[in-house]
Structure formats: C-alpha cells, structure tokens
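REQUEST FORM: STRUCTURE PREDICTION
Request ID: SP-0412
Submitted by: Lab K.M.
Chain count: 1
Length (residues): 357
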Amino acid sequence: MGDDGVCAEDSVNGGLDVWKSSDRAISEADHLVMMVHGILGSTSDWKFAADQFVRRLPDKVIVHCSACNMNSLTLDGVDVMGERLAEEVAEIVNRRPHIQKISFIAHSVGGLVARYAIGKLYRPPRRRHQEVCQSCICNDNCRGTICGLEAMNFITVATPHLGSRGNKQVPFLFGVTAIEKFASHIIHLIFRRTGRHLFLTDNDDGKPPLLQRMVDDLGDLCFISALRAFKRRVTYSNAVHDHIVGWRTSSIRRNSELPEWTDSSSEIYPHIVYEELSKGENLEEIYTDATVLNGGYDTLEEKLVTALTRLSWERVDVSFRNSKQRFAAHSLIQVKDSLIHSEGADVIDHMIDHFLI
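STATUS: Completed
RESULT:
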C-alpha cells in the first residue's frame, strides 16, 4: 500500500490491479479501466498513470494493467495478442461481478491490440448478432456492450492506427521512400508477426491485411461496432519528436488535415498544443483532396482513415519540443515508470480531467 492509500497487487494472468485502499472504495468502484502497454512492454509502463487515476477518482475506478502480452509476447501478432487480452478482460469481469462499466487506455501497438480485443468482446443489443453488427454500422444510437459492460472511454496514446508503412509513418526512417520500402521487407525479422501487421504486409490465407479487416465488422468480430459502442474515442498523439509512430497515423488524419499549432501557453497542460472533436463522416462521402492524387499516396492508408473516421474522435495533440527529453517523446507521452518526472504528467492529468466515469 502506498502512503496515499493506493493499493496494487498481482492479479489474473500476472496483471496488476490498482485501487484506492478503503473498504468503501473497493465496494463502490464499478468502472474497470484496462491499461494496455505497447511493444516489448510490461505492466510497469502504466504504473504511474494507474496510480494517478485511482488517486484522482477514488470510489470510481479499478485499474488493471494488462500482463497477458508482456515483453517478447508482443511479437506474436496483433490478433494473437488481441485474443489474449479479450480472455484477460473476461476473467477480470467474471471475478468482479459488481463492475458495470469499462474503459481502455492503450499505448502504441497496444491500441491496435485493444481494438482487436473489443471486437472479440463486443455484444450486440437485442437482435441476433450478425443482424445487429450490420445495422449498427449505420446507426450511431445503436450501441452494444463490451463483455456485457457499458463502454465508456476508448483512449489510445501514440498508436499507429493506420499502420507504419506509409510515408513518414515511422519518422526515424527519415521519410526516404527507398528506406521505407526496404523496412517493410525486413521488419518481420525484427518484430516478427507483429511487424507484418504494422507494415500491412501480412496476407494470411490470401486475406487482406489485418489492419484493413479491423475497420469493419466480420462475422463474430465486430470491430467497428465495438468502437462505436464507446461513448468517447480519443487519440493522444505526438506532433513532433516521436520517432516510432508518426503524427498522421496516431491521430487518424490525412496529411492535409494535420493542424498548425503553437507551443501551449497553458499552465495546467503545458504539453497539450491542439485539441479537436471530429464528427463521424458520411459513409458515402468520397475524399477527393489533392493529396489523394499525389503519386506517393498510399491508397490502403486512405481506406483505413476513411473507415475509421466514420466514427467521431477526440484528438489531442502533444508536443515535448521544449523538453530536454523530447527525443523520448514516444515514452514521455505515456509517462513510463522509468521516467517518473514532471514531463508528460500533464497528459495523464488531461486524460483524467476529461474521463467519463
């Protein structure tokens, strides 16, 4: 137990449960917050944020830092990790029958894993599963549940929603086309099956790339309906100095949609430089901006962004440009346990201040 009454203990599958220590808090907290780490990560990556959530929202939330995909298990592929995460969530829910609500907060590739898991856990309202999956795509008021729970917040932090193969989607490749193409051919040697998924080079049994399949409802996996079930969908993205995940892919935008921004003047959120709420686009609307006609444009990326922006998203853009640790922006935005200092803490504060409970 911490000095402030925050408790943490190992939980199902080696995960970490964090909650306020009073008996009242344990009995009244009915909101499960699942925190999912990124590639080669562990439960400790979200420990700082988990502590802040239970301190600020006592009697409201129980935080679970997922452990089913730690370390080298993150190389097994987004789908395999998603299956494991879905099983972990189901076990937690079964063990805590008083839980009524669920939210996800996921970093980097963990956001894709969470998207797969909710597709697996989605339960449609009333009518037969397949009928509702199809009808929900066009009806924003038709919401199902996630593992039988009310879906509240789906928050991703520096997640490559559009994959990593597009131009400048992995900034440390310097935007050089030849290097980017070469990386797509060898990425599986480093990050194995997960690398194929991120660079959209997988073609299991002749199927389209997994990330392309994850922007629709397919049989028992209702990916888009599961996302729609959440009352809020939020992306936190590094506008600069994230050398792992580019701004465009993490914020689900096209190049022409990236906003101009200036350094924050806010004392409360000094690293938040831009915020916007985008409404879902018309399903029939075809994007015809001049950038689509650019010779270097990735048509598959356009399919992903078009499909995902059928839903509304809150976008929060972050900059550590003036920080001494700015080149570690991919970690700073999450405030990993090994980087406990003031940098990035305001991003967690922003999450909590806007969190639906």
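NOTES: Residues 255 and 300 are 14 Å apart (CA to CA).
Reviewed by: T.R.
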